[in-house]
Specification:
The protein is built from 12 helices and 13 strands. By secondary structure, the protein is α/β, with parallel strands linked by helices. Bound molecules: zinc ion.
Length: 322
């Protein structure tokens, strides 16, 4: 009997595989395997890591392949949904990886592949902050900025799948270059990596910051940004506030354009630093048109690390149409 589903979240730093009871409405994770993917790059190495994690999940849970109804795989990258191919995932250095085919051939389990942000958005829609809502904008702010639009409880993809990319709306015509190749995108101003490069630039120019002591030349993670803010570090708070100004401006534009019932904010920077969430919401509401901000509610994402794996098991059902 097919009693289970497997959800997988494959991101730039980790792969998380979770076994979920198919009939549990709350989609509680029964068993999970988490592995770091930081050093594994490229089609071959990432696939090997993924298969290793899945084999371990079967081993620790003592479940047979025949008992699993479907695998939902969420990948941080561009996906061709019909063939289940990862066209491009720059954080993992994947190119044209036919991962659906590989998994179906090995495990003989029906597999669907999705983008990680859309899976997380569906997770939040069905079981998290988006329950009882129809039209939602989900924005995840971490290393980059990912987002997804939900219209009438379905993901809206647009003509070629890029709908809802708020991270790449242009906030400065003559501005910083963005990872997408464009210029002046919101992601280059309001993501954690944007804050990191601004702080590093100031330190290089001779400004003093507690960040130097805290990080010991490692990269400036959300944890260190929070510690520096708590210590009232001037440089950190200047660039965090700058990021909040841009982020709230971007969200206000999205509110005016899309007029959603609900905006769900998630991702490391939002989950890790309450001050960023609260200030962003307040400013976005103040900057948007009154008619838009009156009806738009804000909530924090609620499923945390599990939004991707849970969403991946549900996404087929809530996937598009447009
Ligand atoms: Zn961009």
């Amino acid at each position: 009997m097919k009693k289970y589903d497997i959800g997988i979240d494959l991101g730039g730093t980790k792969v998380l595989c979770a076994l979920i009871d198919k009939n549990d409405k709350e989609k509680k994770v029964l068993f999970e395997i988490k592995k770091k993917t930081k050093k594994e790059k490229g089609n071959k190495k990432v696939t090997a890591k993924l298969l290793e994690a899945l084999d371990e999940l079967f081993e620790i849970s003592n479940i047979k392949k025949e008992e699993v109804d479907s695998i939902g795989l969420a990948v941080a990258g561009q996906i061709e949904r019909t063939s289940g191919t990862v066209i491009d995932a720059c954080n993992l250095n994947l190119k044209n990886l036919e991962i659906k085919k590989i998994l179906e051939e090995k495990y003989l389990i029906k597999t669907n592949v999705f983008n990680d942000v859309e899976a997380a958005a569906i997770g939040e829609l069905v079981l998290g902050a988006g329950k009882n809502h129809n039209n939602i904008l989900c924005v995840f702010i971490g290393t980059g900025i990912g987002s997804s639009l939900i219209i009438n409880k379905k993901i809206y993809h647009g003509a070629s799948g890029s709908a809802g990319e708020i991270g790449h709306i242009i906030v400065d015509l003559n501005g910083r270059s963005c990872s997408c190749g464009g210029v002046g995108c919101l992601e280059a101003y309001a993501s954690r990596s944007a804050i990191e490069s601004r702080i590093q630039g100031a330190i290089k120019k001779g400004r003093k910051s507690i960040i130097t002591e805290l990080t010991q030349a490692q990269h400036i993670s959300t944890k260190y940004i929070k510690q520096a803010l708590d210590a009232h570090d001037e440089v950190t708070s200047q660039y965090v506030n700058e990021a909040i100004e841009y982020l709230s401006g971007g969200l206000a534009s999205a509110m005016n354009f899309f007029n959603p019932e609900l905006i769900i904010l998630g991702g490391g920077l939002i989950q890790g630093i309450d001050e960023i969430y609260l200030k962003t919401v307040k400013l976005a509401k103040a900057k948007a048109l009154k008619t838009a901000s009156e009806k738009t509610e804000f909530k924090k994402a609620q499923l945390g690390d599990y939004s991707g794996v849970i969403g991946a098991t549900l996404t087929e059902e809530y996937n598009n149409v447009f």
